[in-house]
Design brief:
By secondary structure, this protein is mainly β. It has one domain: Lipopolysaccharide (LPS) transport protein A like domain (lipopolysaccharide transport protein A fold, Sandwich). Helix content is 9%, strand content 56%. It has 1 helix and 11 strands; from the N terminus they run αβββββββββββ. The protein has a 6-stranded antiparallel beta barrel with strand order 2-3-6-7-5-4. Strand 8 and strand 9 form a beta hairpin. The longest helix is centred in the N-terminal third of the chain and has 15 residues. The protein is globular. The N and C termini lie far apart (106 Å).
C-alpha cells in the first residue's frame, strides 16, 4: 500500500510541475553555400575582375565568408592581368563594401614585378585601395621593404608604409 501511495504521489508531483518553454534561438549561420566558384565582373564588355573560391558561405545580412581562401585577378582594358590578390581566408562585409583577407595574404603587381605579403589585409573595391596595420613585406625587383602598416592602391602601383624598417634605397 505504501508503494502505491508513493507512486501516486510521484505521479502527482510530475504532473503538477511547471515546464518552462525557452525562447526560440535565431539561426545565424549561413543561408547559402557555394562550392568551386569562379565569378567574373565585367564593365563595358571587358572582364575587370575574376574571383575563384573553393567555398563561399552567404549570410542573411549579405555578408560572405570564404573559409577555404580566395584568389582574385584584376585585368586591364585589353584583358591582360595586371595584379592579383589571394588569402587563406576571407570575409566580405556587405554593409561597408569591405573585404578582409587573413592568413598568408599576397598581392602581386605583374607589370612592376612587385609582391606584398602580410597576415591581414583590407580591400575597398570602390576606392580600389588596400590597407593594413599589420607587418608587411614588399618584394621589388632589386630590394625587399619591411614595415608595419600600409595604405596602397589595389594594384600596388602606389603605396605608403606607415612604419618602414630595414635598409632600402631612396631615389632622388
Amino acid at each position: 500500500m505504501r508503494t502505491v501511495l508513493f507512486s501516486v504521489f510521484l505521479l502527482w508531483q510530475v504532473s503538477c510541475s511547471t515546464k518552462q518553454v525557452s525562447e526560440p534561438v535565431e539561426y545565424r549561420g549561413p543561408l547559402r553555400e557555394a562550392i568551386d566558384v569562379e565569378m567574373l565582373h565585367a564593365e563595358k564588355d571587358h572582364i575587370k575582375v575574376k574571383m575563384i573560391a573553393k567555398r563561399i558561405l552567404e549570410f542573411k545580412d549579405g555578408n560572405r565568408e570564404f573559409p577555404d581562401g580566395v584568389y582574385i585577378e584584376f585585368y586591364d582594358i585589353n584583358g591582360k592581368i595586371t595584379s592579383s590578390l589571394k588569402a587563406n581566408n576571407a570575409y566580405y562585409f556587405k554593409k561597408d563594401d569591405l573585404w578582409r583577407g587573413l592568413g598568408n595574404v599576397e598581392v602581386r603587381n605583374f607589370e612592376k614585378n612587385q609582391q606584398l605579403n602580410t597576415e591581414e589585409l583590407f580591400w575597398r573595391p570602390l576606392a580600389k585601395k588596400i590597407f593594413t596595420d599589420k607587418f608587411v613585406t614588399i618584394k621589388l625587383e632589386s630590394e625587399v621593404i619591411y614595415g608595419t602598416g600600409l595604405d596602397a592602391l589595389q594594384d600596388l602601383s602606389s603605396y605608403t608604409i606607415k612604419k618602414p624598417e630595414g635598409d632600402f634605397v631612396i631615389k632622388d
